[in-house]
Amino acid sequence: MENDIVRFEQRERIAILTLNRPAKLNAITYAMNDRLLALLDRIEADATIGAVIVTGAGERAFSAGGDIPEFTLSIKRGADEAVRDFCRRGQAMTARIEAFSKPVIAAVNGIAYGGGCEITEAAHLAVASERAVFAKPEINIGIPPTFGGTQRLPRLAGRKRALELLLTGESFGPERAVELGLVNTVVPHAALLPEAIDLANRVLRHSPLAASRILHAVTRGINVTIAEGLLIEREQFARMCMTQDVVEGLDAWIERRRPNYTGR
Fold first, then answer.
1. Less crowded by CB within 10 Å, the N or C end of the chain?
2. Using CA atoms, how far apart are residues 225 and 100, in angstroms rounded to an integer?
3. Per-residue pLDDT tens over the stretch 174-203
């Protein structure tokens, strides 16, 4: 049953990962966190998968965040254990998503609080249902965000707008999430997964190697100086130059046909 806490489904070249504790608003347990990491390892090694969609089970929540009863026990056992079991584990998960070599799309179907919001922040792209609602509510229980929320949200939304959300814990809707740069678009609830799949397919028609190089350049470059970022960009371009996908893309453009990328 433990493997069911994150459901895996493959639709052609897209992996769909579903956080699966709907009765608990898909709150993230340590086991769920570890399972998600294991599935990402599996997906990264699978050449038949080119993109990932992460969503939540049920009609109410994407994820309400970390499982409070579980991490409360860790906190009561001391800071060292709480940092190791809860903070480092959650940060490793969101860092893995952010640095993943294949596009990760969050399909936010409902409540995205705390860790659920942080998964959305870390994902490369995000589509939100009209029913989605976001919050950084950790301050309400006397802690700062622990899965990267104090770092990624200011980079997405700007310092003052992020601090307003972090310091008040107030919730906000999907249109506000678009304004803040947290999600790309808002769609009717019934259209959420089809829209996320369509977005994935719009990416997948291009070279998977080029997509990976872009993801790498953006993820590494966003936190360094522009000069360092341009060096990273050049490095990623150089890595593409010797690939068959570059030759195919250029030949297809010259010949006015659709390219046939092989990922080599």
1. N
2. 22
3. 999 999 999 999 999 999 999 999 999 999
